[in-house]
Amino acid sequence: MRVLIFSEVFTPHISGVASYVDVLKKDLVQLGNKVMIVTSSPTIKDVFYSQMECNLYCPAKKADNKYGFECVNIKNPNLIDLIMDFHPDVVHIHTDTKIGYLGLTIADKCSVPVVFTIHDYFMDRYAADSSRMLWEIKTRKEKAHFCDMLDNADVVTSSCSRAALFVQKAERKRRILVVRSHTDTHEFDYHRTTDAAIRKLRVQFGLSPDATVAVFAGQLTIEKNLEFVLTAFARYIKPEDHIQLLLVGDGTETDYLHRLCHTLKLEDRVFFTGSVANNQMPAIYASCDVYVCSAEDSLMSMSFVEAMACGLPVLVKEDKEMIVHKTITHGVNGFVYKRKLGFAEYLKRFSRLNEEERSRIREAVRHSIVTMDTDNMGQQYLKVYNIAINKYKNKLYK
User: Do 220 and 171 share a domain, yes or no?
Assistant: First the structure.
């Protein structure tokens, strides 16, 4: 099958979407399919096609969205001709930004079905310091983009059933096919990282060699609710607890989080890496002890899965729909908390474990991911693509 994938971001950009698309492409190619990625880059001035990788990069400009940039000139005839020469069987869209609209254009011109994957919530894409009026205006715009993708997709998917709530709040009725996030469990394996590499990384990021390190990785955006983590640290975790926090990635909330750390006097316990190369992530996870997630409306993010593949138990905030309990077995591969005090208590409890107890937990966490699914993302999506193709054909013959 020839699969044309549209994503505003792709590796080496650090985000869950970029990692998700990267894993999907590798799975599909390994299964014998032909895949082209159409993405954007703020560092180029002209369209660049990598024939070896079969990736097409479009110039991007600064934009007020969760990525900080988006593709420009999606109506460029040369760009459209280059993409159409791929002759896709299906178009798979992972964003409702400009690249997503380019995907709809190509699908229409090539007369092929569209699969749209929901990765985030349209109401949570802007910084917390926006005024209420500005937030409402921007949210209406985001809702319109989100609905355009829903209305034009033959099949809608997501990594988590919670996406159905996003669709409901967008006032649409669409069935969501759940395709669980998957990762390369060989690449994300803490056994492959040496003790020397771990010590080197800890020194590089300013971490103490004997501290318990909690890590978050991904876009530093408002929906991640990292303010919750920082205020919990400031209130309930003391320097003598020897617990540090590593925030990996960049995003629209980066400056705000830096200021908050200064205000809360956490600068000697909270460390920011900025954007890092994707191939560094397995070693970064291996150098940490526990993964923290405080988002209340998040889907099953790639960093979540990658961290668990590296043996990190996940400390995750309980959601009112109890969806998190479908992934986390409390006390086995992670801990589910409700409030800031609970978050801090679980971290402190983990920090008091000895090396043998930590090793036992790491093995259990990794085992829970390795055995989670028999089908990888490529196998799951080939079934989705065939559903979309059959649905599209039936639509044509009506």
Answer: no
* Together in a domain, 224 and 319: yes
Distance, in Å, from the CA atom of 238 to the CA atom of 267, rounded to the nearest integer, reads 13
The predicted model scores a pTM of 0.84
312 shares its domain with 282: yes
In percent, the amount of the chain with pLDDT more than 90 equals 63
Residue 289 structure tokens: 């002890």
Reported as a pLDDT band with limits 50, 70 and 90, residue 278 is confident
> How does pLDDT run across 198-210, given as a tens digit for each residue?
999 999 999 999 9
Taking CA 248 as the corner, what is the angle to CA 208 and CA 120, rounded to the nearest 5 degrees? 150
Distance, CA of 8 to CA of 117 (rounded, Å): 13
**Confidence at 153, pLDDT banded by 50, 70, 90:** very high
Q: To 10 degrees, the CA torsion angle through 35, 309, 293, 181? A: 30
Residue 327, domain extent: 190-370
Structure confidence at residue 141 (pLDDT): 87
For 40-63, write each residue's pLDDT tens digit: 999 999 999 998 899 999 999 988
Alpha-helical (H) ranges within 320-370 are 340-351, 355-370
Q: Are residues 220 and 346 in the same domain?
A: yes
Q: How many residues does the chain have?
A: 398
Statement to judge: residues 360 and 385 lie in one domain = no
- Domain count for the chain: 2
User: 365 and 383: one domain?
Assistant: no
Q: What is the CATH classification number for the domain harbouring 71?
A: 3.40.50.2000
Q: What is the pLDDT of residue 360?
A: 92
Residue 174's pLDDT is 94
Asked if residue 114 lies in contact with residue 91, where contact means CB atoms within 8 angstroms, the answer is yes
pLDDT higher than threshold 60 for residue 325: no
312 shares a domain with 213: yes
Same domain, 257 and 199: yes
The edge-to-edge listing of strands for the beta sheet with 334-337 is: 270-274, 243-248, 212-217, 290-293, 314-317, 334-337
- Whether residue 308 contacts residue 365, with contact meaning beta carbons closer than 8 Å, is answered with yes
What whole-number distance in Å separates Cα of residue 344 and Cα of residue 371?
A: 30
Residue 333, sorted as left (phi over 0), alpha (psi -120 to 50) or beta, turns out to be alpha
